[in-house]
Specification:
alpha/beta; Alpha-D-Glucose-1,6-Bisphosphate, Chain A, domain 3; TATA-Binding Protein; six-stranded antiparallel sheet; 15 helices; 21% strand; globular
Length: 466
């Protein structure tokens, strides 16, 4: 029986040699080729990859399939960040891109991400068409013939770095004399932020700056528990900031000068505040419903329009394309800014944090404390609860109703932008989102006082199980 290939907003992902096989790659790329051929736009597609095992082989196979269906492939020979590929789609005006990446997933995974001609991840109305085309193919798609000529190639790095230099105040970073550590997690971000900073006179050091298809033996995820080497290098060099990216460099991680990991929720809020104050960008801000309400408080403080979206960066990308926002972000470490790609960009996020530290001449922690003093404090938490079939069935029915209280506290507002969000009278909140693929409920909590977060988390969990 043929593997069912389903594209989410981040594409189709599977374990290499189990479902992610050459045969299934042919099926997936044939579906994309047929879709591109049916559109009125350009019949060219960029084909790129992150540094995962066999990436080069998969890119070559995809290029052959595209060519066999009358779509001209443009191959990116080196591993490239997702945002750099997105930018190249826009500047080169292609019919989109195919990117072999599993982002922050463990090394045994790979994936195919299709982006449309705007450089954004394909929306569900597009991926559903592609899935239908794949389903029509059946299980076996013949291997395409070897190309008679070498495929056209593209180096996406120079034009992307040039754009970053236009969007980030590199002179301010250099002038401040701060030292930076870059941790690309052996991923596609290698040689991007570090090269740009070094060329502009910034003292920069790196860790994990070589190819390792196993990513050190764990998922290439720039989270606190995996940033020990980055912190050690910062201590060794006296760096003011550490910036990390995941496997395809669309997500970010930030370490303050004292070795403290600053969670993405706070980075989004801090950069929003800084862009308003230093650049006067007040055309709007976007955040997913599961992202900190510190952004809401800042939007009210700065008198900036707030867009609270469902989870999924495609909604924020659309607002960037329409120039309705200065910055948009998700708590899962996705961020982009005005005038840039409608796609998550972990590289520009890290560079903007370095700029923020340089311009304000204060550590990230100091700036966060000042933000709390300005609009109040917010303490977010994300947890996953696994559900038995019985509990899941009961909970699925329960979330359809509007509860009046949570843990003995009155619910002041019910928000259904995505899942169920319960806002309490003091502004603390809990948001429940059921996974579509696992027996898991994702629970996002945010307390207004740090010592109340544990009790809020307990109340959130108890409500699931009661």
């Amino acid at each position: 029986m043929a593997t069912q290939i389903k594209f989410g907003t981040s594409g189709w992902r599977a374990i290499v040699a189990e479902e992610f096989t050459v045969a299934n790659i042919r099926r997936a790329v044939t579906g994309i080729a047929k879709y591109v051929s049916s559109q009125t736009g350009p019949k060219t597609v960029l084909v790129g990859r992150d540094p995962r095992f066999l990436g080069e082989v998969f890119v070559h196979e995809a290029a052959k399939v595209l060519a066999a269906h009358g779509v001209r492939p443009i191959v990116i020979p080196e591993a490239a960040p997702t945002p750099a590929i997105a930018y190249a789609v826009r500047t080169r005006k292609t019919g989109g891109s195919i990117n072999f990446t599993a982002s922050h997933n463990p090394p045994e995974y790979n994936g195919i991400k299709y982006s449309t001609p705007d450089g954004a991840p394909a929306l569900p109305e597009v991926t559903s068409q592609i899935e239908g085309l794949i389903a029509e193919l059946g299980e076996n798609v013949p291997a395409p013939a070897e190309a008679k000529e070498k495929f056209e190639e593209a180096d996406v790095k120079p034009e992307y770095l040039k754009r970053l230099a236009e969007l980030v105040d590199l002179k301010a970073i250099q002038k401040a004399g701060i030292k930076v550590v870059c941790d690309p997690f052996w991923g596609a971000g290698r040689g991007y932020a570090s090269d740009l900073l070094a060329r502009n006179g910034v003292s920069v050091a790196t860790v994990h700056d070589y190819r390792d298809v196993l990513f050190g033996g764990h998922a290439p995820e720039p989270d606190d528990h995996l940033l020990a080497d980055c912190k050690a290098k910062m201590k060794e060099t006296g760096a003011a900031i550490g910036i990390a990216t995941d496997g395809d460099a669309d997500r970010f991680g930030v370490v303050d000068g004292d070795g403290t990991f600053i969670q993405p929720n706070y980075i989004i809020a801090l950069l929003f505040d800084c862009l308003v104050e230093t650049r006067g960008w007040k055309n709007g801000v976007a955040k997913s419903v599961a992202t900190t309400n510190l952004v809401n408080a800042l939007a009210e403080y700065h008198k900036v329009e707030l867009h609270e979206t469902p989870v999924g960066f495609k909604y924020i990308g659309a607002l960037i394309d329409q120039d309705k926002i200065a910055i948009g972000g998700e708590e899962s470490a996705g961020l982009t800014i005005r005038g840039h790609v409608p796609e998550k960009d972990g590289i520009i996020a890290g560079l903007l944090v370095a700029e923020m530290v340089a311009v304000r001449r204060k550590s990230v922690g100091q700036q966060l404390n000042e933000l709390f003093a300005k609009v109040g404090s917010f303490y977010p938490l994300r947890e996953n609860f696994r559900l038995t079939p019985e509990v899941k069935e009961k909970f699925t029915e329960k979330v359809k109703r509007d509860p009046r209280s949570l843990g003995g506290r009155k619910v002041a507002q019910v928000v259904r932008t995505d899942g169920l969000k319960l806002v309490l009278e003091d502004g603390s909140w809990v948001c429940y989102r059921l996974s579509g693929t696992e027996p898991v409920v994702r629970v996002y909590s945010e307390a207004r006082k740090e010592d109340e977060l544990a009790s809020l988390s307990k109340a959130a969990k108890d409500w699931v199980l009661e």
